[in-house]
TrEMBL record:
Domain Sulfatase N-terminal: 35-336
Alphabetical list of Gene3D superfamilies matching this protein: 3.30.1120.10, Alkaline Phosphatase, subunit A
Full protein name: Sulfatase
Domain of life: Bacteria
GO-annotated molecular function: arylsulfatase activity; metal ion binding
SUPFAM superfamilies: Alkaline phosphatase-like
Keywords assigned by UniProt, alphabetized: Calcium, Hydrolase, Metal-binding
Keyword Cytoplasm: no
Organism: Arcticibacterium luteifluviistationis
PROSITE patterns assigned: SULFATASE_1 (PS00523)
Tagged with keyword Transmembrane helix: no
Membrane-spanning ranges: none
Family: Belongs to the sulfatase family.
Length: 431
């Protein structure tokens, strides 16, 4: 696509100036004062299925995401939650799940919560047009409770956690549901393109694709490079179908961004992340079906994130400890608010232009009704604690994929001190 060739140039601020002072003044006065914000969320896309990370040997062909990565900043230590709903709730509230009650897929977010879009507009005199397109999954399966119930301007998408069929799925809009037969990733992109085209002020779009979440269905052939795939049946290897869904999503992300007028795109910041790790059916080494989606191991919570576009001058990889909650303060900061820390959220806007340290500790959690556990780490050690008192501890620098639980042996003095510090921080978080 032409987009992947022009994106780095569009994201570079290059002016060939041959004009007088009056024309410079006009250009300054007409330049938008606040950036558009495009938040792209992939459903079930871990680092092992993402270009630019060492995990996994099979990678999808994603030229558009690769362009975002090349022109911006890639984060190696983002922690989200093991399943989708808690991650989305933490992004939109800036709070850990135990505070909102959203701790597992399908949990319901109270409409009394202050969501990110409303916070931004309260702080900026309603500067932004706001939209959620795609997967919601913060109100159970009801189409009657949706982002518009929280005060967001526009919602059209998928109320529940997944679709039964990428080619036959329920679209929720205006409090009702209709059946759509167009490939869902393409249809959602059309919705996003149409909404952006209508906006006359700065906009914030939350674009949440259901891809590459199961079911394993083959996208239209022009969207992927996995060849002719037979209809998936149980017992087959789901990997090529999963990769095809990612490639189709990348194709549609390219189409979405290419549809943004160049002057708007120059003033747009794009954030891409995965909401949790790869599902165990298609998890790749060094992860396994024991350490992927649905767990607090790295394969479940450490997902990809790229940030590119307006105001992002750093490139390469940043190793800061970042929590999913931190997107709340960060996006609010980008939108022009003065907040640097709110609820459980710390802004990392500073990292987009310079190197600094944002967090000393990182936290995630899960409660699926059977297992209630929490994870915390510092730069070296990670501690997983279960509500029944069981613990595991790993040196995440020397053992990044958690093969050796050091609590099975005798801790040295440094390890004991680190464990105590992690426990104290965990107690402070959950008080």
């Amino acid at each position: 696509m032409a987009f992947r060739h022009i994106l780095p140039a569009l994201f570079s601020v290059v002016f060939l100036v041959n004009c007088n002072k009056d024309s410079l003044k006009i250009a300054t006065e007409t330049k938008p004062s606040r950036p558009n914000i495009l938040l792209l969320i992939a459903d079930d896309m871990g680092k092992d299925a993402t270009f630019g990370f060492s995990e996994g040997s099979i990678k999808p062909n994603t030229p558009n995401l690769n362009s975002l990565k090349a022109s911006g900043l890639s984060f190696s230590n983002l922690w989200v939650n093991p399943t989708c709903s808690p991650t989305r709730a933490s992004l939109i509230t800036g709070k850990y799940g135990y505070r909102t009650g959203v701790k597992w897929a399908g949990d319901i977010l109270s409409d009394t919560e202050m969501v990110l879009q409303n916070y931004i507009n309260q702080q900026t005199n309603n500067t932004y047009a706001t939209a959620v397109v795609g997967k919601w999954h913060l109100s159970g399966n009801s189409p009657n409770i949706n982002p518009e119930s929280f005060g967001i301007d526009y919602f059209s998408g998928i109320a529940s956690g997944t679709v039964p069929d990428y080619y036959n799925w329920p679209l929720s809009e205006d409090g009702s549901s209709s059946t759509q037969t167009e490939y869902s990733t393409a249809y959602l992109t059309d919705l996003g393109i149409d909404w952006i085209a209508k906006q006359e002020k700065p906009w914030f779009m939350w674009m949440a694709y259901n891809a590459p979440h199961i079911p394993f269905h083959t996208p239209p052939s022009h969207m992927h490079s996995q060849g002719t795939l037979p209809e998936f049946t149980n017992g087959m290897d789901g990997t090529p179908y999963y990769m095809a869904a990612i490639e189709a999503m990348d194709f549609e992300i390219g189409r979405l961004i290419a549809a943004i007028p160049p002057d708007e795109l120059e003033n747009t910041i794009i954030i891409f992340l995965g909401d949790n790790g790869t599902p165990n059916q298609v998890a790749q080494f060094p992860y396994s079906n024991r350490t992927a989606k649905g767990t607090l191991y790295q394969g479940g919570v450490n997902t990809p994130m790229y940030i590119s576009g307006s105001g992002v001058s750093r490139t390469g990889i940043d190793n800061n400890l970042i929590c999913g909650t931190d997107l709340f303060a960060t996006i609010a900061n980008l939108a022009g608010t003065e907040v640097t820390e709110i609820n459980d959220s710390k802004s990392f806007v500073a990292l987009l232009t310079s190197s600094s340290t944002i967090r000393d500790f990182q936290y995630s959690e899960m409660d699926d009704g059977r297992t209630d556990s929490w994870a915390i780490r510092d730069k070296t050690y990670k501690l997983i604690t279960n509500a029944n008192g069981n613990q595991e501890m790993y040196n995440i620098l020397t053992d990044p994929y958690e093969a050796n639980d050091i609590l099975t042996g005798t801790l040295n003095s440094n390890q004991l001190a680190a464990k105590t510090a992690l426990e104290n921080e965990l107690q402070g978080i959950r008080k």
